[in-house]
Design brief:
alpha+beta, 4 strands, 5 helices, 193 residues, 2 domains, 4-stranded antiparallel beta sheet
């Protein structure tokens, strides 16, 4: 009986590490969440009128998620057709006869975030309920009274309308005086409200 041995080195393939099921499920969950999140971000601005029934239906699915994460911003404010902007002009008269005039928001306000805050304050004048508008205006006047040491403040609202495409093609500038509509809000005596 003879035994034959092979002197060749024995090689074996490395054992493959079995994939852990938990890791695979985690990858799938993260991928599905990313797809859902990206779709939600796309649907939010697409659902603003005018939009299709399909997009509006998708919005009802994504709306709760977007609201919880506070991602349901007012895209309609910027597009597709932004409305007019609201500016507030004031003239504050002091006891000594001096006058301070200005506009809210003022382009000179720094930092830019503060300018944006002032802009949003004037924009909210448009959405205040009709029964509260006079009180809203009086609160602006009282603030200006304190700010400038005035005895009387007059307020004027300016609505700035965007030019139409035809006006832009004809060379009308964005700050053309004809694009502003003036509406006096009244004269307010300081300390009366």
């Amino acid at each position: 009986m003879s035994v034959h041995t092979n002197d060749a080195p024995v090689t074996s393939e490395p054992a493959a590490f079995p994939r852990r099921t938990g890791l695979r499920l985690m990858r799938w969950a993260v991928n599905l969440w990313l797809v859902f999140h990206i779709l939600a971000i796309i649907i939010a601005p697409a659902s603003v009128e005018p939009s299709s029934d399909l997009v509006r239906s998708a919005w009802t699915l994504f709306q709760p998620y977007l609201q919880v994460l506070y991602l349901n911003h007012g895209y309609h404010y910027f597009a597709p057709e932004p409305s007019e902007s609201t500016l507030l002009s004031f003239v504050a008269e002091r006891d000594d006869g001096s006058v301070v005039s200005g506009r809210i928001p003022n382009f000179g306000i720094k930092p830019r975030l503060l300018y944006h805050r002032h802009f949003m304050l004037t924009e909210h004048m448009n959405i205040a309920p009709a029964e509260l508008q006079k009180k809203w205006h009086a609160s602006y006047a009282q603030h200006l009274c304190r700010e400038y040491g005035a005895t009387r403040v007059s307020l004027t609202r300016y609505s700035h309308y965007l030019p139409t495409m035809e006006m832009v093609r004809n060379g009308v500038r964005l700050n053309d005086p004809a694009s502003y509509e003036e509406q006096p809000l009244g004269v307010f005596r300081c300390g009366e409200y």
